[in-house]
Amino acid sequence: MKDLASQLKQVKTVAIAGHVKPDGDCVGSCLATYNYIAAWFPQIEVDLYLEPIPNIFKFLKNADKICHCCERNQAYDLCIVQDCGDTGRLGGAVKYFDTARKTICIDHHISNASFADENYIFPEASSTSELIFDLIEEERITPEIAECIYVGMIHDTGVFQYSSTSSKTMRAAGILMDKGIDFSKIVDETFFAKTYGQNKILGQALLNSELYLEGQVIATVITQEEMARYQVKARHLEGIVSQLRVTKGVEAAIFLYENEDGAWKVSMRSNGRVDVARIAMNHGGGGHVRAAGATLEGAPKERIGEICEEIKEQLQAQALEG
User: Fold this and answer.
1) At what angle do helices 167-177 and 128-135 cross, to 10 degrees?
2) Dihedral angle at the C-alpha atoms of 157, 160, 162, 168, nearest 10 degrees?
3) Under 8 Å between Cβ of 177 and 45
């Protein structure tokens, strides 16, 4: 697979889907693909299935066309799954994947199981949005498509500061900027801007934090009660684990927040020495070497202790090798 255009020949219906609780890269990459097909292949019926997206992304073209419910019973000619490592993360949209005549997966997670008929998976890429940039013709990237791709790229690179950012990433960003997008406004309004409630919950998370392994790990927990107190939802917790990661002297950051069902969503970030993807996969999750997550049951302090033991094992193994 070298481009999207060749995959759309002889196709009349397309479904696009991403992972549950869509983030910036998921929303940006999926909408970029939707807008590309809608603009350049008008003969194709295309539908995009995602759970409700954060309000900050609703300015993107055709965000209002996203189907949040998977009630339609239709077998599509093609189902394109993006930024999703396995079918268990597709939510209700999995039925369109299961019944499609052909399936494609476009992703950059190292834990991806290559579960589609065709898989375009590059773990070294900064984002799935960067892969979409690679797959569509540069001359067909409209300003509206460019906005979508740029949003996805900045959110999965922390505005180009994470290690997955490459010179190729920056060249792509330059081309997108040349399409006439308001790139500084996109960064400010979708990445840096926070509500008062978000700032308060960040403060609470920092107050709750503790150091482990002689200061090499920082971890914090946010409960449903605390989220209700500050009137925030899970989608408003973006950025907390990244703020923990930049604490001086730490090798890894762990952030747990309580889901409505009592389970705990854990997000992990590494400063380089710790492979958090390996740890996440041990707990049924996945992600990247420096950014990964999973869903855990039980007492949060016990789960943090278990993760710290795995981090300790990695650090000790490196010490022996070095």
Assistant:
1) 70
2) 90
3) no
Residue pLDDT, tens place only, 163-200 = 889 999 999 999 999 999 999 999 999 999 999 999 99
Residue 227, φ and ψ in degrees, nearest 5: -65, -40
Give SS3 for 78.
Answer: strand
3-state helix, strand, coil in the chain (%, to 5): 45, 20, 35
The overall average pLDDT reported for the chain is 96
Give the separation between CA 8 and CA 6, rounded to whole angstroms. Answer: 5
Q: Structure tokens of 225?
A: 């009660």
Task: Give the DSSP letter of residue 91.
Answer: G
Question: How many CB atoms within 10 Å of residue 97?
Answer: 22
Q: How far is CA 205 from CA 270, 303, 307, in A?
A: 18, 17, 19
pLDDT tens digits, 49-101: 999 999 999 999 999 999 999 999 999 999 999 999 999 999 999 999 999 99
What tokens appear for 193 in the block?
A: 């801007």
pTM as predicted:
0.89
Q: How far apart are CA 129 and CA 120, in angstroms?
A: 12
